């Protein structure tokens, strides 16, 4: 089941209609993936938050069901906010969610269950008579207590057996994950200690906590994800993720969970939650994972908001989309970052493909790739920089960083080079996805992966940025990127998904039959070769209402 924090738009297969944002409670149940999302049924802006509900057989084609939950009780009258689903060993599904209360807009946690768990579509939800089941604890602001995680079971025989984390902040602006212990999801005891806190990071929204296979044990070798309650121990690390209300980015860190104290410690204090790695360096927020028992994988979904004006959203009648779901694994080669990759089902949308191999990109060159219409594409490209060029410079752009740079138009010694997507013939519009190499005087090379929206659209009511971050490149590796292009969204994954960037763009010329794709190299000293580029046209996936009369889709 997928319960999100959501918003809506493009044409691969994303929910669109009014304002949807974070996904809540993702879940797989009896043949269907369930996506719940935060939705305003009345307008394309945030407000009147209810739970929308859509189901899919394959995470690509979606059918909308009636609303799952609406604000109709004093404990959630100001909004049925984010939450998470937990499947219990006896088959029960419990949904915990945050309600914003009628009287004071305090944030309380509520319990709901399907009226009929034998219904594969889980159409009806019943809120517990015991609600609210948790209220803000002493010392926590009444509006700083939200977004319960999926519950996990302690590995021992403890009673209570279940743990749930909830995001918060303290009076000194430290971001917090609080843990509660429960047996029946109605009564809760606070854990004696905070699960984790990071000074200066402010309110943590949509906290997520899950195990990943580490090292070179059987679990890691299989490439499988781990079920949420997988016991900590050798070969298992735990990821803690928080969505930072202050800067609207999703940060994660890898660390160790101690089930005796319900605390978590990051592997690297410098890369702690909120100050280190991000799932995505572009427009991507309030994400959530779930464990898919069918393909034994952990799947991540993010909310991709709009970067145009609220006025434009109201005019178009919808706002926000869901990212393409991603499989998440620990990168066992580096041990220090996750790998995110579009779910394998996306490959079923691939239609005709074209390959371009060994394309030389001289300094200052732009090379068109003739794939016809280039609005819905799946691109895989591998680049190689002539080693003698890097060797010939003693130092290159050591102070570079994507967001403070001039973007793809800037010229460095060993970058930028990559692809221009959603570009028109004369490049008056283009979204650049590229690498940029730095070299220190000690000979060390570092690689940035960036996405430049500055020339993505002629429209003027947009926020346009250059996004990006460093990407680890190990000895012997080529530079590789996968890019999913879908009209108004570009999702990019460098080095197998070590660094990811999502852009919301609104081309006005590079649309429909006029959209093109190019290779480019704007470095002044690097000869670059596109060793291989494969580009597939992507089919559209459907999103439509669930037909009232059919049950066999
Ligand atoms: N959106 C929800 C909250 C969550 C936030 C309310 C994330 O539960 O913290 O719509 O965008």
Automatic annotation (TrEMBL):
<keyword id="KW-0326">Glycosidase</keyword>
<dbReference type="GO" id="GO:0004553">
    <property type="term" value="F:hydrolase activity, hydrolyzing O-glycosyl compounds"/>
</dbReference>
<feature type="domain" description="Glycosyl hydrolase family 32 C-terminal">
    <location>
        <begin position="372"/>
        <end position="537"/>
    </location>
</feature>
<feature type="region of interest" description="Disordered">
    <location>
        <begin position="136"/>
        <end position="158"/>
    </location>
</feature>
<dbReference type="GO" id="GO:0005975">
    <property type="term" value="P:carbohydrate metabolic process"/>
</dbReference>
<dbReference type="InterPro" id="IPR050551">
    <property type="entry name" value="Fructan_Metab_Enzymes"/>
</dbReference>
<keyword id="KW-0325">Glycoprotein</keyword>
<comment type="similarity">
    <text>Belongs to the glycosyl hydrolase 32 family.</text>
</comment>
<dbReference type="Pfam" id="PF00251">
    <property type="entry name" value="Glyco_hydro_32N"/>
</dbReference>
<protein>
    <submittedName>
        <fullName>Beta-fructofuranosidase 1</fullName>
    </submittedName>
</protein>
<dbReference type="InterPro" id="IPR001362">
    <property type="entry name" value="Glyco_hydro_32"/>
</dbReference>
<dbReference type="Pfam" id="PF08244">
    <property type="entry name" value="Glyco_hydro_32C"/>
</dbReference>
<dbReference type="InterPro" id="IPR013320">
    <property type="entry name" value="ConA-like_dom_sf"/>
</dbReference>
<keyword id="KW-0378">Hydrolase</keyword>
<dbReference type="InterPro" id="IPR013148">
    <property type="entry name" value="Glyco_hydro_32_N"/>
</dbReference>
<dbReference type="InterPro" id="IPR013189">
    <property type="entry name" value="Glyco_hydro_32_C"/>
</dbReference>
<feature type="domain" description="Glycosyl hydrolase family 32 N-terminal">
    <location>
        <begin position="25"/>
        <end position="342"/>
    </location>
</feature>
<dbReference type="InterPro" id="IPR023296">
    <property type="entry name" value="Glyco_hydro_beta-prop_sf"/>
</dbReference>
